[in-house]
Design goal:
2 copies of one chain form a homodimer. Chain A folds into 3 domains: about 5-185, 3-Layer(aba) Sandwich (Rossmann fold); about 185-415, Rossmann fold (3-Layer(aba) Sandwich), CATH 3.40.50.12780; about 420-520, ANL, C-terminal domain (GMP Synthetase, Chain A, domain 3), CATH 3.30.300. In chain A, about 30% of the residues lie in helices and about 25% in strands. The first copy, chain A, contains 16 helices and 26 strands. In chain A, strands 7-6-5-3-4-8-9 form a 7-stranded mixed beta sheet. Chain A has a 6-stranded mixed beta sheet with strand order 10-12-13-14-15-16, sandwiched between helices. In chain A, strands 17, 18, 19, 20 and 21 form a 5-stranded antiparallel beta sheet that branches. In chain A, helix 2 (about 30-45) packs across helix 3 and helix 2 packs across helix 5 (about 145-150). Chain A is globular, with a radius of gyration of 23 Å.
Chain lengths: ~525, ~525
């Protein structure tokens, strides 16, 4: 009997797809070559003293080296800490100290940024094409490519003794509130969560349906749940994998064309940037991570991008994907809209939306409540945070901190973060839904709604906009009035004022950084 | 955190697809109604004293009642023994005694057959539409529908405490050699094996690719690995499920038409019988269990039946499915042929084909060897058979007793059972491959090859044929000579003699019953 452990995916793909390609920058590897690099690396890491239970921080964009580390460390039973490079420097250091990183592997893209940390941690490995490059001032330095060069091609006996309940990885939430929280994942949890997600996407005839012949490119960074599981699934399946490195939207578009990429994942803001590019082929996109504005969805459909929505997060993995209900005709506008607003729990996942008293809200398409999750791949706790864990992991359920409602057909809509929603005159205004409606105006490029204090109503919405062309408050108000007339908007949701800006700050996960916006505009 | 336990599938489907249909004979249930019956049943079974660790034998065709038993017993932590109704009576009794059945649930279809057993086992439940029917002479008798009627609709507290490593079911191999062997399966193993199989089928663009909108009908009986997992997957997915009961090929064809069945599983002989029916719609079929003759495959393709092949068994669950290699154009004759002869291990499954010395045979498309399997859902042993277990379960591997070879592209061909292959002049003749070639002749309906003793060669092949029209030995020899000329057949494979019969006996799994044929014709 075999275990569900990460490195077995690669061993399997090696048997079934030895000549399949992994592309990363100028590098082209077959699975066989990739496997050989992993084995050499793993043997060298063992020489460095890395063993079961060691914690290794890796700081890189989505590269072949970062992916190799997933499998090489899995074979040794070491824990990979995928460092979130979009954290503020002090938060990044906090996560590295909190996780207890024994070694830090950093790519040359990030080595200048972390220079101040060289003296704080003793053991560093530089990941770079240039093998003569070093990290000065570092106590114990190795070059990644030299480790591979020196590494023997011989089996790793430890690999056969890794258990599916051993910890495979740890990553930190972006910490929009407070300090980052670490989440440790067992091999089995991270694999079954990812495999269920991708497999399930293959079952649906609409949206980002995938097949064994797709070419995958993860635009979600590995530090974010291993690119929403894309570090595993293409390997599991033996498909062609394209790693985008630090490619910007224009370079991504070129890669899609050149390598015939057909299946990608990205947050809505990345999709929006890609949509600014000229035609980039007939691709399928899994998106999510924040409310998906109808304006972007409409532009995606126009560009022939087939999309599905995922609901999940660092602390719950994948919980739901969007589906078209059985009674809706495929390929209609209505079907498209369901893909944006109708989430179905993955099989084996339970989702409840509860009111203040802990009772499930009615399935009426309107009543907002707090979203709770139960699933086979839920973590047990935040790493070394017993108090915070108790607030979120309760009786086998996870309290997400998201606000949503049930459609009458039991599908789920995620409306907002609980901390972001606005309470105006005792009534909720979910900012995500309001942003979505305003995004439908053709002049709007990016829109964030935050609460401002109001003596009469408690809170009122303020709209912060980045526009593509000049537009007046009056024009926006007229547009929103038509939405009120169409019954799509409650009149009291209309923002009291509009602020036009050149840039809207984003969080490390590419979401609207409302914390920063509130700091600047709320009071 | 949730466990992977069987009844959770139903609880999930109830949330997402409460109004989906389950059809069984004249009965139409929504998932909600089905769930209510299961809860009532489970509460009644508890009253009968059925509890964690109880073993319950069920003897029925694929009906809603049999399916209900799967979930009701799962909630109580009891073990379902799916009795193989195609076993010889003495073997059936052997399995019931060996499993230690505490209760026997029998449908009215089978109650007359098992009448001699009424006095041997004390506790019986009759599954029947007619609620006034009883089983005379039975010590402790209950009627299934009355149990449901009496059962309370209240939660089963035990259901929350079932562990994924608890035993869910036990079933017995058909025992073509020796006595039947029981195989106990944990919840987790049986579910992950089934889910991986069906999910994986959704990924491939060819063959029996399935989707969340398919309508399922299992023609494989539940006693055979829970209908190759179909007791679970449609429920897991929340799709429409049609249970064929005791329907014959003609009635099956009518059901397919009426209920818009799109996805079925069956052994090749069942497919052959269905193909005798007039057009039965645009269906997808998963087949396997014995070598799939090219003659039947050709007829299936002509009838617009899309098929995939599965390789697995009671003692290994699903191990491989057929795929079209990446370099083969879809929808070509070549692609069709690969679906018949090219098996790819499911991800996480390892398959090795070994020679006499235990070394893997070369991947040359010819060298036959013994097939070994390693997978996450492999059982640990045969039930209460330590000695036989030791011969088959070795160092985490399972010795299947099948003979096969690797194609040069690493896909696998299963040629024969080791005990069936013929050794002629020191060379193997795999009977499955020879049967396949002979089946291509239009007059041949069913063909079995067995070994007969031969002084000069050791063994020689004998062909036993059921034909659709009269045909002479000479015509068959001419036909086979053309196959020799085409390079598809070695001359020494041509059978020495042909026997024409009215019926060829089949085993309980619908395979050619070679044991019986050998008894009659071999010596």
């Amino acid at each position: 009997m075999k275990n569900f452990v990460v490195h077995q995916l690669l061993e399997h793909a090696l048997i079934t797809h030895p000549n399949q390609e992994i592309i990363s920058g100028k590098h082209h590897f077959t699975y066989k070559e990739f496997y050989t690099r992993v084995i050499r690396l793993s043997n060298s890491l063992k020489e460095l003293g890395i063993k079961k239970g060691s914690v290794i921080g890796v700081l890189d964009v989505n590269s072949h080296r970062f992916l190799e580390m997933h499998f090489a460390l899995s074979m040794l039973g070491a824990v990979i800490h995928t460092i979130n490079f979009r954290l503020a420097p002090e938060q990044m250091v906090y996560s590295m100290v909190h996780a207890g990183d024994d070694w830090i592997f950093v790519s040359d893209i990030f080595s200048p940024v972390v220079k101040p940390l060289f003296s704080k941690f003793p053991n560093w490995v530089l990941m770079s094409d240039n093998s003569s490059q070093t990290l000065p001032e570092v106590e114990n330095f190795h070059h990644y490519e030299k480790l591979i060069e020196k590494g023997l091609i011989k089996p790793i006996p430890e690999a056969d003794n890794i258990k599916e309940t051993d910890i495979f990885s740890i990553f930190y939430t972006t910490g929009t509130t407070g300090k980052p929280k670490g989440i440790p994942y067992e091999h089995k949890a991270i694999l079954t969560g990812a495999i269920q997600l991708f497999h399930h996407l293959a079952l649906h005839k609409h949206g980002a349906r995938l097949s064994s012949r797709d070419v995958f490119m993860p635009l979600i960074p590995f530090f974010h749940i291993h690119a929403w599981g894309m570090a595993f699934f293409p390997i599991y399946l033996g498909t062609k994998l394209v790693l985008p490195g630090a490619a910007d939207a224009e370079a991504q578009q070129l890669l899609i064309k050149k390598e015939k990429v057909s299946w990608l994942n990205m947050v809505p803001t990345q999709l929006q940037m890609l949509l600014e590019q000229k035609d980039f082929g007939n691709v399928k996109v899994l998106t999510g991570g924040s409310p998906f504005a109808s304006g972007i969805a409409q532009r995606a459909t126009k560009a022939n991008v087939k999309f599905s929505l995922i609901y999940g997060g660092s602390d719950q993995l994948a919980s739901a994907i969007s589906i078209v209900p059985e009674d809706i005709e495929a390929n209609t506008t209505q079907a498209q809209e369901w893909l944006r607003v109708g989430l179905c729990p993955l099989p084996l996942v339970e989702i409840s939306i509860k009111d203040k008293n802990g009772n499930e809200v009615p399935h009426d398409g309107a009543t907002l409540g707090s979203i709770w999750i139960k699933s086979p791949w839920l973590p047990k706790e935040y790493y070394k945070e017993p108090e915070i864990s108790k607030e979120h992991f309760i009786n086998g359920w996870f309290k997400t901190g998201d606000l949503g409602f049930f459609h009458p057909n039991h599908l789920i809509y995620v409306a907002d973060r609980e901390g972001d929603a606005i309470k105006s005159g005792g009534e909720w205004i979910p900012t995500g839904m309001l942003e979505s409606i305003i995004s439908e105006h053709k002049a709007v490029e990016l829109i964030a709604i935050i609460a401002i204090k109001n003596e009469q109503w408690g809170q009122r919405p303020l709209a912060i906009l980045k526009t593509k062309e000049k537009i007046s408050d009056k024009e926006l108000l007229d547009f929103l009035q038509t939405k009120v007339n169409e019954g799509k908007l409650a009149k009291f949701w209309i923002p009291d004022s509009f602020i036009f800006v050149d840039e809207i700050p984003l969080t490390s996960a590419g979401k609207l950084n409302k914390k920063e916006l509130k700091k600047k505009y709320s009071n």
